[in-house]
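Subject: sequence -> structure tokens, single chain

Hey, anyone have a minute? Need the predicted structure for the following. Not urgent.
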Amino acid sequence: MSGAGEVLGPADRAAVDALIDEMHRADDLETFVEVVLVGLQRLIPSIAVAYGEVNPSSGDIVYRPLPEPGEAMLETLLSVMRDQLAANPLIQHFLRTGDTRAVMWSDIPEAYREFRRTEAYATFFGSRGVESQLAVALPAPEGIVCAFGLSRGPEGFSERDRAILNALRPHLVATHRALQSQQEAERWRSVLAAEGWAVVLVDAAGVVVPSVPGRPEPALHIGFPLEPGKALPEPLRSEIAQAVGGYHPTQLAARAGPIRVEAAGVDFEGWIVPSPIPPHVVLIRPRGVDRAALARMGLTARQIDVAVALAQGGTNRQIAACLGMAEATVKKHLEHIFAVLGVDNRAAAVAAIRSARTAAR
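Reply:
Had a minute. Here:
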């Protein structure tokens, strides 16, 4: 098989580089898939291009085609694909070999001949004039295939087309992994935030730095603001200095484990996940609120939820979004909370709620 450098001319290489630049600018998986599909159709004109994630053993499938079929047609296609998912020789090839390089139906002629006799081929491919496919896979958990595929008629695909996919493959893999990791991190951050944890990055001096360049960092007030440019309080700063001070230049970036910050007399609990090279990750939240104490004061369970969110620095809008209620409902709950606590402003309410905090767990 010829290498990409031997098959692709200067114009093709420039077009591939342009698509690589586009995909690296994608800031989420949806945008990434859309950019790649549009770019592949531009580089290798086809009847259709698609992104798929399939699990033949369970029948689960994610399918994003271009051009997009109507909703009714998509449901028909998905139904057939679920029933006949494992029959596609490319899916079988990727599952059997684990080789993610670009492959065509014509590379596996015997499997393709058998596939042409299936209902899946007649319904899903033959009815649309598809007689050839070319696909490149991305690394995925065992038993799952994640791939970009292109479909054409009897003219098939060339080695130039294969070379384009193989030239794109390492960049597809790297960008896909990075965006998956980013998405996973954002989900974990949302879970942590729902439990009252703020996740911030800090430099070696314990000063908060933006986690995403150009994006404002949300401020969580727990007696002090966690905002870019603001230093963390003690004992967090000392713990950071001690954690990173013992690194040797030959150590790898991975740390053995996070460090819990426990100190008497402070109004928060936290964890530090240090790295030899800043930034370092810090998780911090107010000490747990004694819900039983708030209940004894006369607050309902839902009002306690609102009170806890208020003590963690939430605005009415943030509290509403976090608890799944309307802002007007939050306002009503706050009015009752203020009355029960005998206060007339948010600062006094927060102080009263924080007085119900228990010792750190």
